[in-house]
Description:
Blueprint: E1 2-9, H1 29-41, E2 48-49, E3 58-67, H2 77-81, E4 89-96, E5 109-117, E6 131-132, H3 139-149, E7 151-154, E8 169-180, E9 183-190, H4 197-210, H5 215-223, E10 240-246
Parallel strand pairs: 3-10, 5-6
Antiparallel strand pairs: 1-3, 1-4, 2-3, 5-9, 5-10, 7-8, 8-9
Helix pairs in contact: 3-4, 3-5
Amino acid sequence: MRVALTVAYDGRAYHGFQRQSSTSGELTIQAVLELALQNLYGRALQVVGSGRTDRGVHAFGQVVHVDLPSHIPAERLPYALFPYLPEDVMVVRAQAVPPDFHARYGARSKTYVYQVRLRPFLYPWEKGLAYATQASFDPMLIRQASQLLTGRHDFYAFQKQGSSAQTTVRTIDFLDFVESGDSWWFWIRGDGFLYRMVRIMIGVLLSIGRGELMLEMLHQVLSGTVRANFAAYALPPDGLYLYAVHYDTLTPFDPGPLPPRPAGYKLEA
């Protein structure tokens, strides 16, 4: 029985999602999930994730698939796995899926959100969950830059230098932010992301909003008239969350009203 698990986690204690080598000693979300499944079923089982998340990145709706014995109904797995998982990792939904469902190759798009706190500090219990800044921003400039980034472009400039991606053309079909108290939540949905692309994009948007980077420069880079790399603008992983993975055959899990969604965002797009 192939099962799709939707997993939420606080990534502060983990070296990303993907399992590291057996000798690295780095704790990952994949390793924790596989250990929980092994403890529940009494044998080694491998989960396949929709993709990597970096060290310190969080998730509301990471999706994995795993082939399991059928003696536990799929819908009972969140409860069955709960005692075997640490407090910062939770399976929030489990569904039986067709044998050809693939968490990675079947993903049509992904949504990420990034939380920016508009104050110079974070409370101790918030550290690692948001990016704090006391800078002043022009929201209109940020929205204009967001419109430039939306669409199909060569995002060569928005990757960590030395990345091995075979193609850097991606489509961003939604990019906006919503204000909630002293937080800005940036929302971005696309058909794929380069290494650190989301963190670089949000960093570029904030730099434009501060007046440190000109809107015209972004336009020139996206149009190909200027060759540049924006990797230096990457924000830390602290405020980044994988919100949802979108499939043609699987409805995304809805985590509820938080974080607040901007107008126009549809979970089932």
